[in-house]
Specification:
By secondary structure, this protein is an alpha+beta fold. It folds into two domains: 152 residues, Ribosomal Protein S5, domain 2; 113 residues, GHMP kinase, C-terminal domain (Alpha-Beta Plaits, 2-Layer Sandwich). 32% of the residues lie in helices and 29% in strands. The strands form two sheets. Strands 1, 2, 3, 4, 5, 6 and 8 form a seven-stranded mixed beta sheet that branches.
């Protein structure tokens, strides 16, 4: 059964710059894939069937992988089917894009299995119909994404870092995070421009992290984790996406490993990974 990695992402910046009439928020965000990943397997079959190692994950038509397969077949006018299995390692409601990455991986695998040889750009257009982040995961790496995430500008490789991911014992749903932002009337910090300026000038962009959704969340538990990561030697720390996972960036692996040991007993999910 063809299988591939579905990598997680972190948001190094996230600016909410507007809202469409259909309710989708317009973003400017810098995303970076990291080595934490789910494993997604796909094989041809009749109809679309999804199974998952995590029993709490819905596997019906609402599942992003189920939707991705349907959209792939519709786009290519193929009367095909897919048996999909997801081996979950990326936590849900964490802001790490697990569902979107799984969906993009399904699209890439189906492209190979059915031999339609669509370009990355065309696969991104299919993935964009699944959800806001899915198109980014077709190529991954580092990218500046605009619109609802479908306008993707790949970036030069950013400085390599060790990344410690810490998720507390609660999740934050994406719709709830954006609802809070709207209710509070928070103004965007527009941090993406400062991050991109640092990239262009050859400075350290990681000192220019920003996330509008973290500002509107105002959750002391998130702030506590950030403070702990900085205290343990992270050069920068921030909530990823809509949360609730917080990441710390470390220049030295030894420092990151020591931080992991210090936090592993305090939080249900602590994972050391790296930029890819």
């Amino acid at each position: 059964m063809p299988t591939d990695n579905a990598y997680a992402k972190i948001n190094l910046t996230l600016d909410i710059v507007g809202k469409r009439s259909d309710g989708y928020h317009l973003l400017e965000t810098v995303m970076q894939t990291v080595s934490l990943c789910d494993r997604v397997s796909v094989e041809p079959c009749n109809g679309i069937e999804v199974t998952c190692s995590e029993p709490d994950v819905p596997t019906g038509p609402e599942n992003t992988c189920h939707k991705a397969a349907r959209l792939f077949f519709e786009h290519n006018m193929i009367a095909g089917g897919a048996k999909i299995h997801i081996e979950k390692h990326i936590p849900s409601q964490a802001g790490l894009g697990g569902g979107s990455s799984d969906a993009a991986t399904v699209i890439k695998l189906l492209n190979l299995i059915y031999g339609v040889c669509r370009s990355d750009g065309e696969l991104e257009r299919i993935a964009a119909k699944v959800g806001a982040d899915a198109a980014f995961f077709i190529r991954g790496g580092a990218a500046l994404c605009r619109g609802i995430g479908e306008n993707i500008e790949p970036l030069p490789k950013l400085p390599k870092r060790e990344i410690l991911l810490v998720k507390p014992d609660f999740g934050i749903s994406t719709p709830e995070a954006y609802r809070r932002f709207d209710e509070k009337g928070t103004l965007s910090k527009r941090g993406t421009s400062a991050f991109m300026e640092a990239v262009k000038r050859g400075g350290n962009p990681y000192l220019k992290l920003s996330n509008d959704l973290e500002e509107s969340a105002g959750d002391q538990r998130i702030e506590k984790i950030r403070g702990e990561l900085i205290g343990l030697g992270a050069e920068a720390s921030q909530m990823s996406g809509s949360g609730s996972c917080v990441f710390g960036l470390f220049e030295r692996k030894e420092t990151a490993e020591a931080a992991k040991l210090a936090l592993a007993g305090k939080y249900p999910f602590v994972c050391l990974c790296g930029t890819i």
